[in-house]
Write a sequence for this structure.
């Protein structure tokens, strides 16, 4: 096979890998899984296989998007709780509640994907509320405000992370052709 056709074939294979991992990454993010990091791993493997097609710069760019995404995810629920008067402990409760809520939501809300999302949002609110009321000893009103802020922050986080994952997926696919 002539060199040009081989490179073209490999470029299309990498583009297909990028498209597949991009779509899988989006679904993973909705399920509260590390979708962008899945793309970073796939892009790193593609770079190792074909460094002329996927560059180090592309992998680093995806990793930076992943870091921004994770920072947003961690900060959003905590910031939502904090903005409405929550404590640092309440913010930690929101983060733990998000993880537990996503797991329980997946199991107990029998609507695919939506159960995980709702579970994470409700878990963030419940985690902040329980910590604020049970450990910090805030009033019910203040605890509810903190929990509501955590739930709103988690909702914002989901949309921001989803947007960044879509950008990362498009970037990964585009990187195979540029």
């Amino acid at each position: 096979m002539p060199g040009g056709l081989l490179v073209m074939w490999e470029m299309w294979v990498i583009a297909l890998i990028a498209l597949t991992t991009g779509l899988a990454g989006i679904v993973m993010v909705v399920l509260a899984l590390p979708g962008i990091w899945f793309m970073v791993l796939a892009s790193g493997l593609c770079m190792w296989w074909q460094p002329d097609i996927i560059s180090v710069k592309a992998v680093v760019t995806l990793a930076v998007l992943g870091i921004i995404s994770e920072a947003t995810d961690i900060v959003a629920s905590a910031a939502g709780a904090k903005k409405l008067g929550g404590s640092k402990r309440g913010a930690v409760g929101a983060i733990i509640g998000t993880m537990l809520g996503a797991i329980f939501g997946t199991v107990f809300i029998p609507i695919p994907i939506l159960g995980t999302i709702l579970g994470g949002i409700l878990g963030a609110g419940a985690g902040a509320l329980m910590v604020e009321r049970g450990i910090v000893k805030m009033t019910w009103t203040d605890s509810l405000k903190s929990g509501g802020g955590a739930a709103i922050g988690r909702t914002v986080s989901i949309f921001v992370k989803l947007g960044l994952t879509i950008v990362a997926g498009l970037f990964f696919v585009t990187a195979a052709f540029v």
In short: The mean pLDDT is 86. The chain has six helices and no strands. The two ends are 23 Å apart (CA to CA). Residues 3-175 form one domain.
